[in-house]
């Protein structure tokens, strides 16, 4: 800021790039833990059906190809996000 940058410019060019790895990691962890905390989702959801509740109730009736497809898509999206994050962080570090 001593070089007459605006507060928004300082945040965008200095602070945000330093915080980006922590922000991305927290997003990935929150996404992963949302599937792990079925009990909390079950009691907090109310009348809404979240994805973990839907998967759990479907598995109780038997594993169907639909559940396998959902699991495959969640795994694929997670892997794509992790790979994209690594590529983005490598490019920024150069």
Task: Give the tags.
94 residues; mainly alpha; elongated; single chain; 4 helices
Provide a compact summary of the structure.
With 94 residues, the chain is mainly α.
**What is the CA–CA distance across the termini?**
24 Å
Helicity, as a percent range: over 70%
Could you state the order of secondary-structure elements as H and E?
HHHH
Give the oligomeric state.
Answer: single chain
SS content category: mainly alpha
Rg calculated over all Cα atoms: 19 Å
Largest sheet: none
Give the helices and strands, then pairings.
Blueprint: H1 7-36, H2 38-44, H3 51-61, H4 65-93
Helix pairs in contact: 1-4
What does this structure look like?
The protein is an all-alpha fold. It has helices spanning 7-36, 38-44, 51-61, 65-93. It has 4 helices and no strands. Helix 1 (7-36) runs antiparallel to helix 4.
